[in-house]
Amino acid sequence: MTTVTTRTVAYTADGLTMIGHLALPAGADRRPAVLVGPEGVGLSDVERRRADALAELGYVALAFDLHGGRYLGVPEEMLARCMPLLADPDRMRDIGYAALDVLRAEPRTDPDRIAAVGYGTGGAIALELGRDGVDLRAIATVNGLTTGRPGETARIRCPVWAGVGSEDPIMSPPQRDAFTAEMQAAGADWRLVVYGGALHAFHHPPVDHSVLPGVGHHPQHAQRAWRDIVDLLTECLPMTE
Fold first, then answer.
1. Which residue ranges traverse the bilayer (predicted)?
2. Which of 108, 115, 179, 185 is least crowded, fewest Cβ atoms below 10 Å from its Cβ?
3. What is the 8-class DSSP label of residue 36?
4. pLDDT-above-90 percentage for the chain
């Protein structure tokens, strides 16, 4: 365990002032870094804690913002912003690039060793960065099995790990099949883990507001998915090379 330093960072993306959460490990040396993308509701303490946990493991971690500092706990409001965003790869990439620029500008970050981990909408953004040819060491997406524009997935330059609940009605079997077919056709280095009995956003602790149908926490699989992500980072983004 290392001593973690955190701070908020403000930056501009999608016409909004975004408020991200940067977590730094102890020391002064450059470290590999991880971009952490939140669910469609927006940046919350869940992603902030995950960034902190990654910093405890030695990574520089930035949990990025989606909605200009807002958390959209009303499902209708979240869908009204996220559905157009998910339908626009260029907007998603702009949000991802803005956060990536912040992470790369941090003096502790080794700019040549960065991975992206995202949940839901944040996972879709991580995939779009890969599809745009960003030099990432790994991409992990949990319940964000989106497909991209024809031919662009061949530009992904790193392993892709994906996790989904078997009972997720949003990332349904046809959506899973489309995602895996796209990855396979592109020749990507990909893995898909289906967590039996889990719903959409199974990794996210229970919340005190209404959620979409088919959303629910699965404590055991949440821990397993986190371990799988850490294993991916250990493989693809080791502390030393």
1. none
2. 185
3. E
4. 96
